[in-house]
UniProtKB/TrEMBL annotation:
It comes from Croceicoccus esteveae. This is Tyrosine--tRNA ligase. ATP binds at residue 238. It is an enzyme of class 6 (ligase). A motif ('KMSKS' region) lies at residues 235-239.
Length: 408
């Protein structure tokens, strides 16, 4: 359909829209007034990873279009854990762990959203503020009556676990009710009219829409993004070294930059639309580059995303390090560093310590496959001992992962 509001046009043109409830009415509402919209983030770790970045960028687009983003930290729902498309229950977290994770996650939003007291300024709230105060019997009576167990069992997020005969605790089963309650509460507290999320959240979002309509007689809206995978089918947010974290203390800026620099050629246009603020006309030009020039588009992607999430200085330093490492044959200043004591260490421990292998077995397989190098010389002996180097020594795993061994 042809949208009239700036919000829906931008979301459509950049590829964010997968499903929407009453898209025509949402478009009309966004064309005539400020629409507060929210996305929830459960604090299951000290940082979100790039799989969550598309959701954060949706909030950014919401604000850029003149509307109000609401960031909901799941201090309450995090105590339950979303069972959506999970094979098993998440480990239970203590209140202290949840609080620490929430505090850590908050930092990434400050770069991408403008917070304040204005009508379109972003706000951050914690759903523990209302969920922790719920009384069980009143909640069952007032809210539980609006949910059909028959229908809840039919949701894909629940059905998947049951079909696989995997345990689904009663605690997890309640998650969708709590998320629905969040929407109703945000509608009352902040005039929130829109919930956004990934396609795996569709059932939870619809529950909140229906609860708000039944209890308050108010129409609210839902919008989801497509399932985000790379061109080769891998889940967004994972790399050879593990999760690609948004927080600097969880993943160095250089590694973050390299993740985008090394993306599949087929993903460039889509990623530029979703994860950068570049004009669409410029993106169309960049995605037509081919041959060796495709690397120009990849570097532009890496610089733009890193600048948004880590700052312009971090992006510039990462590019300079890549240039020194790959084009100059040296060791860039932003590469990961592993300190080597006077006793030295084995090549296996070096690969493990710098993060190029997750286990000693994986390190040995890397060596056996010819993927490990020291100062560009292949390592063939897994029993090799490395003495404390007199100057920086470059250690590599494959063609794209490099680090520095440095004497303590």
């Amino acid at each position: 359909m042809t949208y009239t509001s700036r919000l829906m046009r931008v979301l459509d043109e950049r590829g964010y829209i997968h499903q929407a409830t009453n898209a025509e009415a949402l478009d009309a509402l966004a064309a005539e007034r400020i629409v507060p919209g929210y996305i929830g983030f459960d604090p299951t770790a000290p940082s979100l990873h790039v799989g969550s970045l598309v959701q954060i960028m949706m909030l950014r687009r919401l604000q850029q279009a003149g509307h109000k983003p609401i960031v909901v930290m799941g201090g309450g729902t995090g105590k339950v854990g979303d069972p959506s498309f999970k094979d098993e229950a998440r480990s239970m977290m203590t209140d202290d762990t949840i609080a620490a994770n929430v505090a850590s996650i908050r930092r990434v939003f400050a770069r991408l959203l403008t917070f304040g007291d204005g009508p379109t300024d972003a706000v951050m709230v914690d759903n523990a503020e209302w969920l922790d105060r719920l009384e069980y019997i009143p909640f069952l009576r007032d809210i539980g009556q609006h949910f059909s167990v028959n229908r809840m069992l039919g949701f894909d997020s629940v059905k998947l676990r049951l079909d696989r005969e995997q345990s689904l605790s009663f605690l997890e089963f309640n998650y969708m009710i709590l998320q629905a309650y969040d929407f109703r509460e945000l509608s009352r507290r902040y005039d929130c009219r829109l919930q956004m999320g990934g396609s795996d959240q569709w059932g939870n979002i619809v529950n909140g829409i229906e609860l708000t309509r039944r209890v308050d007689g108010r129409e609210v809206f839902g919008l989801t993004t497509p399932l985000l995978t790379t061109a080769d089918g891998a889940k967004m947010g994972k790399s050879m070294n593990g999760a690609v974290w948004l927080n600097e203390d969880m993943l160095p800026a250089y590694d973050f930059w390299q993740y985008w620099r090394n993306c599949d050629d087929r993903d460039i246009g889509r990623f530029l639309r979703l994860f950068t603020d570049l004009p669409l006309e410029e993106i169309r030009t960049l995605e037509t580059l081919d041959g060796a020039r495709i690397n120009e588009a990849k570097i532009r992607l890496a610089n733009e995303v890193t600048a948004l999430c880590r700052g312009a200085d971090a992006a510039a330093a990462a590019e300079a390090t890549a240039q020194a490492t790959f084009a100059g044959g040296g060791v860039g200043a932003d590469l990961p560093v592993l300190a080597v004591s006077e006793q030295g260490l084995s090549i296996v421990d070096a690969l493990l310590g710098i993060g190029f292998a997750q286990s000693k077995g994986e390190a040995r397989r890397l060596i056996a496959g010819g993927g490990a190098r020291l100062d560009d010389q292949p390592v063939t002996d897994a029993a090799m001992h490395i003495s404390a180097p007199g100057s920086d020594l470059r250690i590599s795993a494959g063609k794209k992962r490099h680090g520095i061994l440095r004497a303590e």
